[in-house]
Amino acid sequence: MQQQRYTIRDFYFWKITVCLALASFFIFACMYAVQPLLPVFVKEFGVSVSESSLALSLTILGLIIGLVVLGFLSDRYGRTLFIKLSLAGSVFPFLLLPVTESFLIFLLLRLMQGFALAGLPAAALAYLNEEMDRKSIGVATALYISSNALGGMLGRVLTGYITDHYSWESAFYFLGILGLIILIMVFVILPKSRFFESSAVPFTKDIEGFLIHLKNPALLLIFGLGIVLQFSFTGIWTYLPFYLEKPPFGLSLQAISYTFFAYGLGVIGSPFAGWIVNFFGLRKVRIAGIIVLSLGVFMTLASTVWMIVLGLCVACLGFFTTHSLTAASVSDQVTHHKGSASSLYLVAYYVGVASGSSVLSPIWSFAGWRGIVWFTGILPIIYLSFVTIMSRKLERKQAR
Questions:
Q1: Residues contacting 224, CB < 8 A, separation 6+
Q2: What is the CA radius of gyration of the chain?
Q3: What is the pLDDT of residues 207-246, one digit of tens each?
Q4: pTM reported for the whole predicted model
Q5: Among residues 237, 205, 211, 204, which one has the least CA distance to residue 316?
Q6: For 377, phi and psi rounded to 5 degrees?
Q7: Domains present along the chain, CATH in parentheses
Q8: Cα separation of 158 and 25, whole Å?
Q9: Which distant-in-sequence residues (6+ apart) come within 8 Å of 201 by Cβ?
């Protein structure tokens, strides 16, 4: 008898969905846990602001490498293997990071952790697509993606809160214990793949698929938008703790970490974008999202904390609205190798994270928060204008 894919009524559907949601929550909490702690590392290790920011950007660099490598390997050796290895590889560094006295070793451990983190996003969506019924997969995917935003938000808040009350080492031990519990649950509960078929396509063919996409001008514009959006968004959040800890605000790390609750609008922004696009079209909503993102960034120039927080909320709404639509538009631009096109967008997205957390350090040094805000607020508008002009040229070229 032929096996049926899991539907929302099946117990195994929920076993898979809950396991991946928990794993996703932990992976993204690990990824961004250091962001509110960057000022702490400056004092603790005696490093500069730009060096401190490497704690995030090198993690993302490891993630980018892992997405490419582990994505290929999961197509050949299975999905659940790399989901479990990803969790194990993410937990282990949290046991070593608190005892290291060298910031260089700290950064190397974060680089390795970033590579391990990639195993889940490289395999999870493919695993869901293989095991779930077409009518039920939307629920599982939505819960998985919502857990990404939730993990990123609470990872920042929890580490900030625990560090302010105890120490950054305690925060990392807490994440390590939490990850170990989730790892055991996933090992015990996550069902084996039933429909996975090992890819027999040579690596050279996969590389050819990547190269084909890099010759598509319309796709390159989308990849560039992914970089720019995340560059600006990450830049604001990376330097925000340095800004708010100084006069005239003088906020504690705990208070600063609470600002990351603005990420909660990311859970609203993505489905909201999917709904409103049915009325106004993808292009108009995406343009509006970019304008809202920039507006929110400029609102953080205010002199009051409540206005800055409101600006962060507006920026989050604009960013997640635009990001979800940009990611969705990738598949519309290609007719083959759609998986590799989505992977390339993901790589571009995280290039923006890595560069936004470190490349802006000279602007911070010379122009402070105002320099960061003006640069990150204007950049998306400039790139939007560039995309609009280039898209019209491409449309005219195709019409000939």
A1: 348, 383, 387
A2: 21
A3: 777 777 788 888 899 999 999 999 999 999 999 999 999 9
A4: 0.85
A5: 237
A6: -80, -35
A7: 9-188 (1.20.1250.20), 200-400 (1.20.1250.20)
A8: 13
A9: 75
